[in-house]
Structure formats: C-alpha cells, structure tokens
Amino acid sequence: MALDERFKGVGVALVTPFDEHQNIDYDGLKNLIDFVSEGGVDYLVVQGTTGESATTTAEEKKTLLDFTKQHNSRKLPIVYGLGGNNTRQVLETISTTDFTGVDALLSVCPYYNKPTQAGILAHFTAIADASPVPVLLYNVPGRTVVNLKPETVFELAKHPNIIGLKDACSTMEQYMEIAWKAPKDFLLLAGDDNLVVPMISLGWHGVISVIANAFPKEFQDLTWHALEGRFSEAAALQFSFIEFDTLLYQESNPVGIKKCLEIKGICGSEVRLPLIKASEELSNALTSAMKREGFI
C-alpha cells in the first residue's frame, strides 16, 4: 500500500472558538478555516486536543464537524478526532457518526485507565475494525499517562485500516526508532511543533500543528522546506518559533494559541473551564514575541 499523500505536510489542529458566554463562535470558526486554508495548510483536523474536545458535547462535536465540511471552501482533506478511554463508547460513536466528507479518523491513546500495551493494541484494533475511514493513531503521553511504544506501533501498522501515527512523546530516541523500523507506507506525523525539522530529517512526513492555527503560512513554509530538503531555510524558521512554542503551553493548550489568534483578529481567546483565558503576563509575552519575530 502506498503512503497516503493527503496527510503529508501540515495538518492544523483547529481550535474551537467560543464567545463570551462560552458558546461556539461559528463566525470565528469560519474566519479560522478561511485563514488557515488561505495560508496553505494541507488538511484540517477537527476536534483534536487543541479543539478542546474534552469539554465539547457530543452534539457540539457533530455540529463542528458538519460546519467545517460546509465551509471547507478549498476542499482540503478533513481528519476527525474521535477517541476515548471507553472502547465500547468509542465504537458506538463511530457507528452513529456520518463520515461523509471525512478522510481519516484521529484516535488518541486511552487515558486515565493506564492500559497495558496489549490493552492499547486491542483498543486500536477494535477501532480500526469498526471505522469506515482510515485511522491515524495519536500518542501524547503527557496527557494520557501511557506511552504507545514503538513495538506496539509496528504491530498496529499491520492493520490495513491503520495508516499512520501522530506522536507527541517528545522523545527523540523513540522518534528515531519509529522512523527506522516503521513500514515505508506508514505515515509519521509530528505532534511536537518545535521538533518538526529534526523529525523530518529522520524520515517523518509532516506535522499536525497547533502553531499553524495562527501562523499557517510560516509553518507551511517551515515544513515543506524540510520535506523538500531545504534544511537551512527550514531550520531558520524552526529557530524563530522555539521561544514562542514554549510560551504557548505555559498556561496549557489551547490558551496560548487562542490568545495569538485574538491578537491577530481571527477569533476570540475564550476557553472553557477548567481552562481559563491567558493571563496578562502571558498575553504580553506572546505579543512581544510575535513582534520580535515579525509575526505581527
């Protein structure tokens, strides 16, 4: 099977804009979809972690997906975040979801339960068996506690409906082992914006990005410079985001990136409890960093 080129490059993990009453701001979401699409991203990711999927309802998730489909003016591929720590519930949700216009499913490792690798293997196998679209695995141990180990990834890669992995474990040794041993047709997508260039140099194929919400053109250039072998240009852009990337997560994601979007006039910076809006200190630091790097 050939590498699925639709998900090479930059996927943007879309934030979910809210108004001052914490309701979904659909005008803001349309602005965001248009902005990142015009910025050149390769595909859209709906209801990943950055979309505050932990605090959106089942009905809101459906509406957000439908809205994105309807306002996807450039007809970019769409990846839908659908995972959880209750396997049976995930399978029920898959069975009642309309996947028309969805190109792949992004499913996170089960969190809180702390399953063994055998449990993770069984969980993802059940999801891949049930999904009518290809599945991308999502490893983010900083949030889930468990790490999807390379040997489990390689076993899951044998499943005909599992086409790739987004990994945000922040461990270069693991990234190297996966790049070395994974099948050549298995998509490898960075989940760490600040490691995209070194990961691509090892053989990874792109990124599902937080930063690309506010800086789609810059992150598209960074990623494709690296994919096309222009590593000095890619590195220069990567360096410009290093300090900035650290600031984004000081008060949890997507607090920082939503503040950047507000500064740029794309949408508001409201988040849902238990998250709270960016502090004045963080807001000032982000503004200063954006000005210093020429982003505004």
Automatic annotation (TrEMBL):
Any GO CC annotation of this UniProt entry: cytosol
Transmembrane feature ranges: none
GO biological process, one term: lysine biosynthetic process via diaminopimelate
Enzyme class: lyase
Enzyme active site: Y138 (proton donor/acceptor), K166 (schiff-base intermediate with substrate)
Family note: Belongs to the DapA family.
Record's function text: Catalyzes the condensation of (S)-aspartate-beta-semialdehyde [(S)-ASA] and pyruvate to 4-hydroxy-tetrahydrodipicolinate (HTPA).
Name of the protein in question: 4-hydroxy-tetrahydrodipicolinate synthase
